[in-house]
Design goal:
globular; 10 strands; 302 residues; alpha/beta
Length: 302
């Protein structure tokens, strides 16, 4: 937000910022975010999906949904893509895709195009549940994208290779921390770590939180996502518990996919650290990472 808002303002746009505080509202204050309007969860706006629909009532021409796990390296790049709206048929520009398709992680859109869609516009949904597991699970915004394309509207979908050069997306890192908070009330602390070890979907966001913790400590000198006892990453997955979780992964294909994803996150973290002018050491998670670089990440040359 620090770079995005002034960059869009310099392009001639009147920019207003709203932050949806779906948790830990006390940590988001006007002192830290001057000029920002805060929206809190409650009836009619219980989660991100309902917030997105509520935002359609804002009096403006365009909205830019930016996920809390997304960080820009180059805000000018986003402004250049905004020129796509010179074509009146363009309904949206997705700057960060999900599995190659448009997503709401960093979505700029023409608000009139989305207001025309049946409510709820951005809700997740299941289709053909009776055919499960062959049913269809639509993420937030997927149904809107499909309907707009049916109506002949264009959605500009930036490819992942281009996106990763200009924006870092630590997808689901915040969701994992929220999940731990919710799950542990019902199943306890130890049981959540067992879930992490059993379900691979937890591994990447847990790793991303480790990287964000390294960066947070380098910038602020404080623990990231601590638990009530002050343990760093205690509200996510601690590094020892993450290492234990990956020890049980034997499938070569799974390990290769994790290694590639870890490397992409490491590169993004190092670029973010360079932008902030700090040095950051990144611990190994997979054993061969330790063999390759002695247990700490080094900035890529070139």
């Amino acid at each position: 937000m620090r770079d995005v808002v002034p960059t869009f303002t310099r392009s001639g746009l009147d920019v207003q910022v709203k932050i949806f505080r779906d948790a830990n509202a006390e940590q988001f204050t006007s002192d830290l975010f001057p000029g920002v309007t805060f929206w809190d969860n409650g009836p009619g706006m219980r989660d991100q999906n309902e917030f997105c629909d509520a935002a359609l009532d804002i009096d403006c021409d365009f909205l830019f949904f930016l996920d809390s796990d997304a960080f820009f390296f180059d805000a000018d790049w986003a402004v250049r893509h905004f020129k796509a709206f010179e074509d009146p048929n363009v309904a949206a520009v997705s700057l960060v895709p999900r599995n190659g398709r448009p997503a709401v992680f960093a979505l700029i859109f023409r608000i009139a195009s989305y207001r025309d869609l049946p409510a709820p516009v951005f809700a997740c949904r299941y289709e053909f549940p009776k055919d499960w597991p062959e049913g269809v699970g639509l993420e937030n915004g997927d149904a809107a994208t499909r309907e707009l394309i049916k109506r002949g509207k264009a959605i500009v979908n930036v490819a992942m290779d281009e996106s990763a050069e200009h924006i870092a997306n630590f997808r689901s890192s915040t969701a994992l921390r929220a999940a731990r908070e919710s799950f542990t009330r019902a199943i306890g602390e130890g049981a959540f770590d067992i879930c992490v070890a059993r379900h691979r979907a937890f591994i990447v966001p847990a790793h991303d939180n480790v990287l964000l913790g390294c960066l947070y400590d380098a910038i602020f000198g404080q623990p990231f996502a601590p638990d009530e006892a002050g343990t760093p990453l205690g509200s996510s997955v601690t590094l020892p518990n993450l290492r234990k979780a990956v020890e049980n992964i034997c499938d070569v294909g799974d390990l290769d996919r994790l290694r590639a994803r870890f490397q992409r996150s490491r590169r993004a973290t190092l670029r973010m650290a360079a932008c902030e002018g700090v040095n950051v050491e990144i611990p190994w998670v997979l054993p061969d990472e330790n063999i390759a670089d002695g247990g700490q990440a080094r900035p890529d040359k070139g």
